[in-house]
TrEMBL record:
It is a single-pass membrane protein. Required for the export of heme to the periplasm for the biogenesis of c-type cytochromes. Keywords: Cell inner membrane, Cell membrane, Cytochrome c-type biogenesis, Membrane, Transmembrane, Transmembrane helix, Transport. GO terms for cellular component: plasma membrane. The keyword Transport applies. It holds the Pfam family CcmD. This is Heme exporter protein D. The chain crosses the membrane at residues 6-27. One of its GO terms (biological process) is cytochrome complex assembly. Belongs to the CcmD/CycX/HelD family. It is found in: Cell inner membrane. The keyword ATP-binding does not apply. The lineage of its organism: Bacteria, Pseudomonadati, Pseudomonadota, Alphaproteobacteria, Hyphomicrobiales.
Length: 55
């Protein structure tokens, strides 16, 4: 029982950090997708997209 608080708090902190980073990445990914959609809607295209011969 002497180390229980340390062990449980360490696991709790690790879980908190893991969840926080996962949420941060998810929210940031959604923001980047919206940003890309806005740029593509305004006519700006990605370099990785190949243009057709007619364009």
């Amino acid at each position: 029982m002497t180390h229980a608080f340390y062990v449980y708090s360490s696991y709790g902190f690790a879980a908190f950090v893991t969840i926080a980073v996962t949420l941060w990445i998810w929210v940031d990914g959604r923001a980047r997708q919206k940003e890309l959609a806005a740029l593509e809607a305004s006519g700006i295209r990605r370099r990785s997209v190949r243009l057709k011969d007619s364009e």
